[in-house]
Design goal:
By secondary structure, the chain is mainly alpha-helical. The protein contains eight helices and two strands; from the N terminus they run ααααααααββ.
Length: about 270
């Protein structure tokens, strides 16, 4: 619904209703300015203009326009008050039913937007203080009985023999080293035999054949195994001999005394 036009009212009001002719002209200009703002959707400025016009010329129709503008701004309470002021000023208004429907709508909006006040519950009654705990007299202190003394004699730790684990490990290394060296020697003989077979195959075949290639591959593998066996066997033999010699020597020991106990350190 459009806002109410009050141009005819501003003209029809007798001159005695205005303090001055200037107020009437200024009210008319404010009304026209507010109407222009309202049509452009600038409700805040329109409301200022309508209220200024009502301040200069307090006519009920301007309250209708103020109510419509407040609705556009979502200011439900102000719109509700303006509609009620309008009906008070114009009890037999031709659009009374419409205004009353707007008032009913705005009353629901105001009620929905007003937060409900939670009832204040009385403070809980204080709980009774707990009864004091009974005082228990402490039991008389008794001196602990002295523990019986125990005398222990610490016998000197026997010194271990000089051989220990070195002798069996040394002999194991010697045996394994000898086997590895023997395997290396075997593969050396096999490599020499493969080299001789390769020369015979080349002499008979003329050209390098597939048989000659196979013999050459076997010979190269035998040479590698020969080197590996001899090197491993040599290292194991030397290690085993050293361990056996150290075990037979018995090792040196250093004794450290502490009270009645003696700790023997061998190195």
């Amino acid at each position: 619904m459009r806002i109410r036009s009050v141009a005819w009212l501003l003209v029809a009001v007798p001159a005695g209703a205005f303090a001055q002719v200037d107020d009437r002209e200024l009210a008319k200009r404010n009304y026209q300015t507010g109407e222009a703002y309202y049509q452009r959707g600038e409700f805040e400025k329109a409301l200022e203009s309508f209220r200024e016009a009502y301040r200069l010329v307090p006519t009920a129709d301007l309250q209708f326009n103020i109510a419509k503008t407040c609705e556009g701004l979502g200011r439900w309470m102000e719109a509700l008050e303006a509609y009620r002021t309008y009906l008070e000023g114009v009890p037999d208004a031709p659009d009374r039913k419409f205004v009353e429907s707007r008032i009913a709508f705005l009353e629901k909006q105001v009620a929905a937007s007003t937060p409900a006040v939670a009832p204040v519950s009385p403070p809980p009654s204080p709980e009774p203080a707990p009864a004091p705990a009974p005082v228990v007299a402490p039991a008389p202190e008794t001196e602990p009985e002295p523990a019986p003394s125990v005398q222990t004699d610490t016998a000197p730790a026997p010194e271990s023999s000089g051989g220990g684990w070195k002798r069996p490990v040394g002999w194991t290394a010697v045996v394994v080293g000898a086997l590895a060296a023997g395997a290396g020697a075997y593969y050396g003989i096999l490599a020499a035999q493969k080299a001789a077979d390769l020369e015979d195959a080349e002499a008979e075949g003329g050209e390098f054949s597939e048989t000659g290639q196979a013999i050459q591959d076997d010979g190269e593998l035998a040479q590698k195994l020969q080197v590996l066996g001899l090197a491993t066997g040599g290292v194991l033999l030397v290690t085993g001999i050293i361990l056996i010699a150290i075990a037979d020597d018995g090792g040196d020991s250093a004794a450290t005394s502490l009270g009645n106990s003696r700790f023997v350190v061998r190195f």
